[in-house]
Amino acid sequence: MTKSAGFYDLRQAFGEPGCALCRLLAQTADSYIDSMLWELVNDPELRQELNQTRGYCREHAWLLVRHGASLGAAIMMKDIIDTLVRVASAGPFDVSSSFSFRQMWQSFNSSQPSAAAQLAADFAPQAPCPVCVKVQSSEGYYLAALRQHLTGLDSLAPAYQASAGLCLPHFRRVLAQTSDRETLTALVEAQKAVWQRLSTELSEFIRKKDHRFQHESYGSEGDSWLRAIEAVVGTPPKGKGG
Ligand SMILES: [Zn+2]
Ligand SMILES: [Zn+2]
Fold first, then answer.
1. Is 220 helix (H, G, I), strand (E, B) or coil?
2. Cα of 171 to ligand 1 centre, how many Å?
3. Angle of helix 44-53 relative to helix 130-148, nearest 10 degrees?
4. How much distance in Å is there from the Cα of 33 to the middle of ligand 2?
5. Is the pLDDT of residue 98 over 70?
């Protein structure tokens, strides 16, 4: 079977700490933000799109804080802030007149959406975060590549088994898409081996916390409790360890 780029990306990521998929998708988000920042200044369509999406979601917007990005971020954020001012100015009522409270009170008591609810909806992103969209499609690609290369000669299974495994959300996602029996077995076996190894390390860590064994220094199990958190929920938000 010819190997796709996804195979090599996954094999490489299995050699690094943490969930391989979390790692690859963080790289996807990172380089996508980079390319957007470069294009931002010259692409009116992209800027228009970012006004509609109100920029990026909370997780991805903070990726803008990076070396050399302040001008691009400022241009994007000014567009968005100006869009918010425009929405505020085009509201369904004139906030400067005295009728607004009464009208709002009336609409609270009717089945119609209130002026306030309408305005809240107008301020909301009108389309999903473009980085989320990109990450989702990249995730689909890597999940398919993983399923495709879990069995047969030169499969990803040994690299998977020797790695920190997939985080539980990614493991469940790939599981849900697996219909082939052999792939399913390889997947569960690899992940189970990872969890068993982690459990042994946690036992060792807990044992050494006992005052009777406190003279023993920590080995690889020293950060097993952190890796266990990551194994269950995925990588920490950027800037929080990991
Ligand atoms: Zn993950
Ligand atoms: Zn996002």
1. helix
2. 8
3. 90
4. 10
5. no
